[in-house]
TrEMBL record:
Residues 77-126 form the YycE-like C-terminal domain. Pfam families: YycE-like_C (PF22659), YycE-like_N (PF22658). Residues 9-61 form the YycE-like N-terminal domain. This is Uncharacterized protein. Signal peptide: none annotated. Gene3D superfamilies: 2,3-Dihydroxybiphenyl 1,2-Dioxygenase, domain 1 (3.10.180.10). The lineage of its organism: Bacteria, Bacillati, Actinomycetota, Actinomycetes, Micromonosporales. It comes from Micromonospora echinospora (Micromonospora purpurea).
Amino acid sequence: MPITADTHVRLARPSRDLTAAERFWAHGVGLDVLFRAEAGRPGEHDLVMLGLPGAAWHLELVGGAALTVAPRPTEEDLLVLYLDGPADDELVTRLERAGGTRVSAGPYWDRWGITFADPDGYRLVLCTRAWSNE
């Protein structure tokens, strides 16, 4: 089966604190909790999947006592949302209240948006540009 524009994408990341991460991504960004599970057997992780109903992608955060890999984000670990305009003040306030920290992502992204670090240090860019693959 070929990869198409409808192929579902999962972005999985470890989290030190799933409650704090969920607060940022659900209450701050506005994503829905699509699925949640607690580790039921040895070797399993607690997890929460966040996204938008019907979208071909979701963000999966894993954590809990069995987590063996700590989050190790770098300045280049960016999840960019192309808003096609300035970020709404209400969204910025929600992100800050939900545990997001405004950070610099370098001259390019600072010019074209606002960057937040989530509670695990992964970066979210609210880009003022529209997406174009041209």
